[in-house]
Batch of 2 targets.
Target 1
Amino acid sequence: MNLWYALVDLLPFEWAEPGRMLFMKNALLAILVISPLFGLLSTMVVEKKMSFFSDALGHSAFTGIAAGTLAGFADPSWCAVALAICFALLFTWVRDRTNLASDTIIGVFSSTAVALGIFLSTIGGRSFTKFNTLLVGDILSVTPGKIGLLAVILLLVVLLWLGSINQLTLSAIHPALARSRGVRLWQQEALFNCAVAVVVTLTMTWVGLLVINSLLILPGAAARNVSGNLRQYTSISLLTAVFAGIAGLMVSYYIGASAGASITLILAICFAGTFCVRNRAAS
Amino acid sequence: MSIEKHINCHGGCHGKCCLRVRHLTVRLEDDLILDDVGFHLHCGELIALIGPNGAGKSSLFKSILGIMPYQGSITFESAEHGKQKPRIGYVPQNPGFDSGDPVSVLDLFVASTTNYPAFLPIPAAIRNRVLESLRRVNGEGLIDRRVGSLSGGEMQRVLLAMALEPVPNLLILDEPMSGVDMEGEQQLLELLDRIREQYDLSILISTHDFQTLNRVDKVILLQKKILAAGDAKDVLRSDAFRLLFGAGAEKGGETE
């Protein structure tokens, strides 16, 4: 961390002065780890048409934290991770075994999860207010230990990408073709869903439940507008996410608004931009 | 009803190498999809499956591909290798990629035929190999096109090139003529002829386009069971064909 602080101290910002505002420097590093995570996952969430699913996962993560708090864990996020993984696997399993449309099943899961979360957190007449921070998120509260954990997750997701991107892409664009090429659809889907579940759960505290899904959708959606192949798609999504992450943090520092919301708004502007570029190219 | 008659095969394999489908029955929950289907396919032979929608053509293909549970036996034998697991090239029905999919033909190729992660910069060696494959189907120019922007005929040629990488023992094309215009159809049929000459493989296609049937070796009329099989002329004149498609249907494609 000291190396990082020394590095940031070189920046010409008010908050970057040596020895001051360590929380801001932590937040910047956290953003640099979180944003590429979302940039990568986003490409497949959009490609696999899972936008609504990742939203439901966020709800189940909230349920997990409520359950963990009720059970008296000091750090309920591990409870939330476990629950989100169960949720992701159960969802994949149920969708495989029913003929209901996928969005119906997501709706069933999502509403159940959020109801259970509210139920657990308010049981015995307790107040919901202490969970408000989860809804909005606070990137400034991130600690170096958590950043280390997120960096490990980023490494794992990159490994998943190197090993599975071909199968993931094939099963997203043409399941029958993927199956004939020996791709195990169920396994791929479960693995990817678990990755999304873990990332959403572990970053929710800092990004905020209400806007976390936008981070999973907007970078990929913005990149999809202007990409002709997978390399452009991935790199534009990554760049968009990292740019919006840093810019959002700065905006929130100087204006004093929520970082998660600022990042989301900048992502939305990026989407609008690429949308216009595409339409101009098409006409 | 199974067809046990062997047809003299091309390429001097003496009728020994073939796909044998025997007593194939497929059930999906309570529905009987295929009922005691049997036929032989020799090397170098092109068999066309015809039949109305829901006749079980796709289920038959999926059983051969091993992605659908079935009763009965599907075996593959070749003169050189004896009994073996065949390498199957599969061209799926009506791909229907999203027009916005940010996936190029090169990406699709790399993702399906290599272990190289397709989101990284693609080395020249792999690109050249893909170009080589596409050349087989006169499709070198398609390599950087998005899959969603290809016409039906172009898409079929790309999928065919992929199915030939590596060259399979058995090539299966599910409705290759659907969504393909007349010109694309002719190109595709000529390609199939050329591939049959060049490589030692058998081809199984399903089609609704009865005008193309004069170019195949054998036609099988399927409707849960095999209702008729043999030369195109005989099958198109059979009572079963007339009953299913109406008199005169053989002169044009089936109207759907």
Target 2
Amino acid sequence: MIQARVLIRPKEGILDAQGKAVEGALPALGFSGIEHVRIGRIVELQADSTDQLEELCEKLLANPLIEDYEIETISG
Amino acid sequence: MKWGVLQFPGSCDERDALNACQIAMTALSFGGGSGEAPSSARNVVGDLTGPASLPRLVWHEETDLSDLDGVVVPGGFSYGDYLRAGAIARFSPAMTAVAEFAAAGGPVLGICNGFQVLCESGLLPGALLTNERTRFICRQGDLIVGEADSPFLSGYEAGQTISIPFKHQSGRFFAPPDLLDQIESNNQVAFRYAPGQNPNGSLNDIAGVTNEAGNVIGLMPHPEHAVEGFSGSTDGLGLFQGPAIAAAGAGS
């Protein structure tokens, strides 16, 4: 089995409301000098091969209109 | 006209949608309703006294829509809205059937989560993102009816203002610039938020769009919650009556 990790994040230029909310909370917590917070997600999975991973990302894990993805193979 | 309303695990507005379909059809068959329905619409609506034309729920595993004249994809949190709102519902057997139904020209109305499902399915253009301010919004608001050529809008006038509840957390309509241009130039905007009332940061104030053919429509606000006087507005009825009015107009 191949262990893979898919990183999905909002496309550059799209307002990431979650990231903005987190960024807005930082000064109150005493953090300064941190900006451009963007929030995505990581999907970890095991697969027989890497053949279908691209299609899986295009069809389900990411919405190509609004999200970019990267597939990282950890072991296999 | 017989409506079907999809029901996914996690749907929550399907009963209101079912109720809206029934009220809308009953109002048409008795010559009432929100708009001026042509009297020939009565023939299309058919006999509402028998069970054959009463709207029904369509469980997400069902694939036979042959008894239906129109389909509503309702609001809620289909499959828990995991991954992205609407992303998993898109792969349900019922949605495969809805895609075929739509391709054959059948009228399909997506409300809120249903709009998200139709966008994820590729039946409607664009995507819905988390509201600009990340909050869940729930309030009555105004929409301006667009110029889209769709049977669903035949009970309204372009430019008309209607009062419909807004109730969502991921309703920020987005499309990349080229797709947005295409939606605008094809007149696929069905509804815009009234000036100053865009609650979520939607591009061009877009609250609802149609597909190119006009037989598939989706909107974030909830017309099914605006069909009875006690709720303060019956402006939502037109969406559920539109296809019947259009069919009656075409047939007369």
